[in-house]
Design goal:
Blueprint lengths: L4 E6 L4 H13 L4 E4 L1 H7 L1 H10 L4 E8 L3 H11 L3 E5 L4 H14 L2 E5 L6 H11 L3 E5 L2 H5 L4 H8 L7 E4 L4 H9 L4 E4 L1 H4 L4 H13 L11 H11 L2 H7 L10 E2 L6 E11 L4 H9 L5 E7 L9 H10 L3 E8 L2 H7 L3 E6 L11 E2 L3 E3 L2 E3 L4 E5 L2 E5 L4 H23 L4 H5 L1 H4 L4
Parallel strand pairs: 1-2, 1-8, 2-3, 3-4, 4-5, 5-6, 6-7, 7-8, 10-11, 11-12, 12-13
Antiparallel strand pairs: 9-13, 10-14, 10-17, 15-16, 17-18
Helix pairs in contact: 1-11, 4-5, 9-11, 12-17, 13-17, 14-15
Length: 429
């Protein structure tokens, strides 16, 4: 191909939304329109027919992810108007051969999706020999969330396969440009176009990037730095949504209103307002950590106040979460420092030294271990297990992007019920 092809993946559930978004993407420069697997499962071949009719001048790609009955499923898609049909690369050779025969019969092309293939280079050579037209270097969404990269897969294939290579999986304008520079003929972009409030603008940015491909030197980013960057860009509700509505503390509120705290937890267990261990924990914490305090026993005394807050701020602590009371609220609010607590009282306890630092605690109904990540804002506090922090941060960003498009559609006059097709998707009993 002389110029790179931009394929927009409509991984949606609602056909009317898919048509609207496809129209905006085409105005931004998209060449091929992919009827994504979720859309096919939701709407069937009618989705392919509708998009074929609506966009007669554009190639329609049916992402069937065929695993069996290759001839039948290719025929279904071809007769519905698809020009390219997707099959799983790890399907049995017999399935591939029948799919190729059907594709030749009906004048369509076959794209093999390498998702989950153990030896992608060898399998791609086999697929090319069997007659597949395109190889798709695809890393699925769940694999992306744990850090796997479609660009890495593409680079393994470059120069090794005699058919055009497509690439898919979390691409944006910058990585799409790198993909073309690395040898991709077809660049497939989903969420970073279809979830944007301005779909046309997002598609145009990708179009411009792949028309001028380049590989830019990247600064290495540590895993912890990436986690912090992502969590700082999303909200606490985004995070709990990404965890299937889990991780949220109960009864804790922001003392200073619209502030945010993100960081690994330094945990503290104290008794009856004893403020010794919470204050000592300030010296244990590293810059960017969040102190999480469980105050056991009496709740009419506060283990935290203005002087401790000032000390924590000087230390670079990112925030404080207290399952208990805080005092000196007026002074703390002047500092605009992220303090979250379940109550406010004027009384302070005494520094007796009871309790522990960096032990497992239960804070506002959630288990918190040292090093677990805390995301706190005006909506509340969410605890993310440290071993899942990168994955959850990536998923939370996807939640945020999805909400951006829904928010735009509501701004245009639709209701949330209409956008989500709630009646259609209510659980059947």
């Amino acid at each position: 191909m002389a110029t790179p092809t931009l394929q927009v993946a409509l991984d949606l559930l609602e056909l009317d939304r898919a048509v609207e978004i496809a129209d905006e993407a085409v105005r931004g420069g998209a060449d091929w329109i992919e009827v994504g697997t979720p859309l096919i499962k939701s709407e069937g071949m009618q989705a392919v027919r509708t998009l074929r009719e609506r966009f007669p001048g554009h190639e329609i790609v049916a992402d069937m992810k065929i695993a069996d009955t290759g001839a039948v499923e290719v025929e279904m898609a071809a007769k519905s108007g698809a020009g390219v049909v997707c099959i799983l690369a790890d399907a049995d050779d017999a399935v591939i051969v029948e799919a190729v025969r059907s594709a030749r019969k009906y004048g369509v092309r076959l794209m093999a999706d390498l998702i989950n293939v153990a030896d992608p280079v060898s399998r791609s050579r086999e697929l090319a020999a069997l007659g597949v037209d395109y190889i798709n270097a695809h890393v699925g969404i769940d694999q992306q969330m744990i850090g796997r990269s479609s660009l890495d897969l593409l680079r393994r294939l470059a120069g090794e396969v005699g058919v055009p290579i497509a690439v898919a999986g979390g691409l944006d304008a910058e990585t799409a440009s790198e993909a073309v520079a690395a040898g991709a003929s077809v660049v497939i972009v989903g969420g970073n176009i279809v979830k944007a409030a301005d779909v046309t603008g997002a598609a145009r940015r990708v179009r411009e990037a792949i028309d001028r491909p380049e590989i830019r030197p990247r600064e290495e980013e540590s895993r912890d730095a990436a986690i912090r960057r992502l969590f700082e860009a999303v909200s606490a509700p985004n995070v709990t949504d990404a965890m299937h509505r889990k991780g949220s503390m109960a009864g804790v509120v922001s003392i200073c209103g619209r502030v945010k705290a993100v960081g690994p937890a330094v945990t503290v267990r104290t008794l009856a307002g004893d403020w010794a261990k919470p204050v000592e924990a300030i010296d244990v914490a590293a810059p960017g950590d969040v102190l999480v305090v469980r105050n056991e026993g009496r709740t009419d005394v506060a283990p935290w106040g203005e002087l401790a807050t000032h000390s924590a701020k000087n230390r670079g602590v990112a925030g404080i979460v207290i399952d208990g009371a805080v005092r000196d609220v007026d002074d703390i609010r002047e500092m605009k420092f992220p303090v979250f607590a379940t109550a406010t009282v004027p009384n302070a306890g005494d520094p007796k030294g009871l309790g522990e630092i960096n032990t497992e605690i239960v804070c506002c109904g959630q288990e918190v271990r040292p090093g677990d990540w805390i995301v706190a804002d005006e909506s509340g506090v969410v605890v993310v297990p440290r071993e899942r922090a990168y994955e959850v941060a990536r998923r939370a960003m996807e939640v945020r992007k999805n909400e951006e498009r829904i928010r735009e559609e509501i701004r245009r006059g639709r209701t949330l019920s209409e956008v989500s097709e709630l009646l259609k998707w209510e659980k059947r009993h």
